[in-house]
Amino acid sequence: MVAYWLTEGLHPSIKTNYHIVHIKCGRNSTIASLSDALGNVKFTVSGGHCGFRNAGRGNPEVAYQVVTELKTKEERCGRTHDQSGRGVDHLKLNGFERGRTQAFWAIRASGWGIKRITDVTPIQRGGCRPPKKRRL
């Protein structure tokens, strides 16, 4: 049914005039991307893109810098949410690392109107079988 909507035009009840901010906070780096409602990525910024190298990319400060760089990248291309009428309604956070809270505060400080926050961190349910016990 969804494939039909994508090929023949979207269903009238589906709202497509908003953006989604995806933030992945990993141990080694923080990656933020801005996409439209259908998931097409417009901009992507990472810790290395902001000038941080090696172990410095895992800091909470990097997460703040990544989000502010994403905001300036959007403004440089002339795609502010005020002019086009397309606001950022949805924030998707991924990962349990240290930059998660800082990225959220950077989103709030940037002026994007977030109406919905979703945690998309995968959680293991059982996982793989552990290796057999070592016998000496």
Describe the protein:
The protein contains four helices and five strands. Strands 3-2-1-4-5 form a five-stranded mixed beta sheet. Helix 2 (60-76) runs parallel beside helix 4 (99-110). It is 29% helix and 24% strand. The mean pLDDT is 81. Strand 4 (87-94), helix 4 and strand 5 (116-119) form a beta-alpha-beta unit. The chain has helices spanning 2-8, 60-76, 81-84, 99-110, and strands spanning 18-25, 30-36, 41-46, 87-94, 116-119. It is of the alpha/beta class. The radius of gyration is 18 Å and the shape is globular. The N and C termini lie far apart (58 Å).
Q: How do the helices and strands line up, and which of them pair or pack?
A:
Elements: H1 2-8, E1 18-25, E2 30-36, E3 41-46, H2 60-76, H3 81-84, E4 87-94, H4 99-110, E5 116-119
Parallel strand pairs: 1-4, 4-5
Antiparallel strand pairs: 1-2, 2-3
